[in-house]
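Thread: quick sanity check before group meeting

JM: Hey all, I'm pulling together slides for Thursday and realized we never actually wrote out the predicted structure for the chain we discussed last week. Dropping the sequence here so it's in one place. If anyone has concerns about the input, flag it before I start.
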Amino acid sequence: MKLAGAVLAAGLLAAASLSASPASAQGAGWKPTGPVSVVVHTGPGGGGDAFARAFITALDRDKVLDTTMVVVNKVGGGSTAAMNYLNEKAGDPNTIGVFTSVWVTDGLVQSEAKVTLPDLTPISRLVLEPALLVVRADSPYKNLKDFIEAAKAAPGKLKQSGGSVTARDAVMRHVLMASTKADWAFVSFPGGGERIAALLGGHVDMMMIEPVEAGELIRAGRLRAIAQVTDKRLPNFPDVPTIQEQGFEVPNVPQARGIVGPPNMPPEAVAYFQNLFLKASKSPSYIKYLNDTQLENAYLDPAATKGFITDYANTLRTILQGAGVKVVR
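JM (edit): ok, ran it. Output follows.
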């Protein structure tokens, strides 16, 4: 389950793209003919929904947008409802979608998924996301090792709240359990607020959470971070060791967010959105949003995004297979 090669390749692609010139003049002069639909797989307030609304607001503030963008929530089957919707919009230049890692894992493990991420038109990768593993502040588990040892002592007794069974938090659980031979339950909730409430209410024992969500609750003395799911410690959490620093030689399950279009999206529309998100990657308000939320600015152009998606799927396939998860593609 080696992740270093894929991460290195993605980093080189990102560096090349950020220094590259904007898209060719192929899309010059073309603009959307109406409001642009931004399809997300989560409901209002979910991670994809919040990210889409935040970057739209930031781009609008910096006057990067020359059109209206409207978030369209297509919830169901993990990400399959959103991907099916985009597939139905084949050739539409006014519809884009925000993909995350679950768009990859759903295609790998759901045999009934008729549309997968490679079927859609790559436009850009936007960010890479760190995460934290947290417990209640009064939990007996001071670090990840404490939690793992308790899970070994009482197989299946401890619980982790999370999202879809194919989402990053569920995959990370599989990776840790396969490596440590520990065993704990996974309880799926549709929204982040419900996952946090379950942890604070004592119904589960641990969860994976975005740093910006955790920060306020940690400062308020309600949560404790026991590990960082990052390659290096985040500046805002200098005293919290990474999973690897605690002696667990497992890969960090990657989480990326980016933009895709429907199949057969016109080249001039792809070029337009490529230029838009390249500008976005340099927009002050957007950069401030990424800094505030501790996201890594990781723009890739369409060609590099296509390569990233392929490498990403191969990496996740290896991780899932190593964790004993059945992969159908």
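AS: nice. The domain at 131-246 is CATH 3.40.190.10 (D-Maltodextrin-Binding Protein; domain 2). The chain has a mean pLDDT of 89.
JM: adding both to the slides.
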